[in-house]
Amino acid sequence: MFRLLGAARARGYAAHMQQYLDLMDRALNHGAEQMDRTGTGTRSVFGHQMRFDLRQGFPLLTTKKLHLRSIIIELLWFLRGDTNVQWLQERKVSIWDEWADENGDLGPVYGKQWRDWEAADGRHIDQIRELIETLKTNPGSRRMVVSAWNPGELHAMALAPCHCLFQCYVANGKLSLQLYQRSADIFLGVPFNIASYALLTHILAQQAGLEVGDFVWTGGDCHLYSNHLDQAREQLNRTPGPIPQLEILRNPGSIDAYEYEDFVIHDYVAQPHIKAPVAV
Ligand SMILES: Nc1nc(=O)c2c([nH]1)NC[C@@H]1CN(c3ccc(C(=O)N[C@@H](CCC(=O)O)C(=O)O)cc3)CN21
Ligand SMILES: O=c1ccn([C@H]2C[C@H](O)[C@@H](COP(=O)(O)O)O2)c(=O)[nH]1
């Protein structure tokens, strides 16, 4: 009986992360060849959706080893409202270095827009605090949207937001979250983005006293860079492994009090890392 349940869960999970490989396969074999801002060239498709039932487990890619530490620290950095890479560098996370100026600044990117959106009338809007308040007091709301896409400040950002908007939804005590990602680097960025928003869903659910539901990933321009094609083929030859599980060791009582050490991933058995250059 337990063996059967385990097998069913593994099959469910294989379907879980198989969705990522399906997107990769679609771009590789049916994508349009495009030139892009970075001068690298891509194969891209427009419009794609994946759905991860977070009760089955945590959607961390097993067909290539991922550095979960960078993902957790980056999310905590967004939640701090921080937009300077110094805090990341002090924690040995270098994924934003290429885009920072000589002072480490990225301009008013995610952290700024999430925690301190400046309105035309001078108000400062903490979208994350307001979201948690609404999740607690009016979970049926259809307006639980957080946007990093601030057209008035795009010119000052080192990179326009890729994961630019998300919406929350509560039914039967379960929190679901859908992300709209306008531009998606399938090989490097997307595995990070899926894990990051799955983690955010767990954190928001904990703060609002809810269970987790689905994380829905919706992509706009979904592309494989031309210097990631061999790596993609290698990954497509691999089969997803069993589902890892996330444990949050304590409830720190506030969205602002999480620490890296609060998160533990269990049963993460991944195939070897595959290196790929990032397009700047
Ligand atoms: N072209 C491009 N793709 C991205 O995914 C991306 C950007 N640019 N610019 C902004 C951020 C930075 N992000 C990044 C940047 C680098 C890696 C990267 O090099 N990942 C390696 C090692 C990661 C580590 O050091 O932990 C990987 O193999 O996943 C991933 C995401 C996501 N974003
Ligand atoms: O979280 C992220 C951040 C960035 N990306 C990728 C998507 C694109 O390949 C580049 C951004 O270039 P644009 O010309 O601004 O679209 O970075 C990602 O996948 N995930």
TrEMBL record:
The Thymidylate synthase/dCMP hydroxymethylase domain covers which part of the protein? 18-280
Q: What keywords does the record list, in alphabetical order?
A: Cytoplasm, Methyltransferase, Nucleotide biosynthesis, Transferase
Catalytic positions are: 162
Q: In which pathway does it act?
A: Pyrimidine metabolism; dTTP biosynthesis
Q: Which reaction does it catalyse?
A: dUMP + (6R)-5,10-methylene-5,6,7,8-tetrahydrofolate = 7,8-dihydrofolate + dTMP
Which GO MF terms does the UniProt record name?
thymidylate synthase activity
User: Which Pfam families would you find in this protein's record?
Assistant: Thymidylat_synt (PF00303)
Gene3D superfamilies found in the cross-reference section = Thymidylate synthase/dCMP hydroxymethylase domain
* Binding-site residues, dUMP: 37, 142-143, 182-185, 193, 223-225
Task: Fetch the SUPFAM superfamilies from UniProt.
Answer: Thymidylate synthase/dCMP hydroxymethylase
Domain of life of the native organism: Bacteria
Which spans of this chain does the record mark as coiled coil?
none
Give the Enzyme Commission number.
Answer: 2.1.1.45
What's one GO-annotated cellular component? cytosol
Q: For binding (6R)-5,10-methylene-5,6,7,8-tetrahydrofolate, which residues are annotated in this chain's numbering?
A: 67, 185, 279
Task: Write down the top EC class of this protein.
Answer: transferase
Q: Which GO terms are recorded in the biological process aspect for this UniProt protein?
A: dTMP biosynthetic process; dTTP biosynthetic process; methylation
Localization per Swiss-Prot or TrEMBL:
Cytoplasm
Relate the protein's function as given in its record: Catalyzes the reductive methylation of 2'-deoxyuridine-5'-monophosphate (dUMP) to 2'-deoxythymidine-5'-monophosphate (dTMP) while utilizing 5,10-methylenetetrahydrofolate (mTHF) as the methyl donor and reductant in the reaction, yielding dihydrofolate (DHF) as a by-product. This enzymatic reaction provides an intracellular de novo source of dTMP, an essential precursor for DNA biosynthesis.
Quaternary structure (record)? Homodimer.
Protein family membership: Belongs to the thymidylate synthase family. Bacterial-type ThyA subfamily.
Protein name (record): Thymidylate synthase
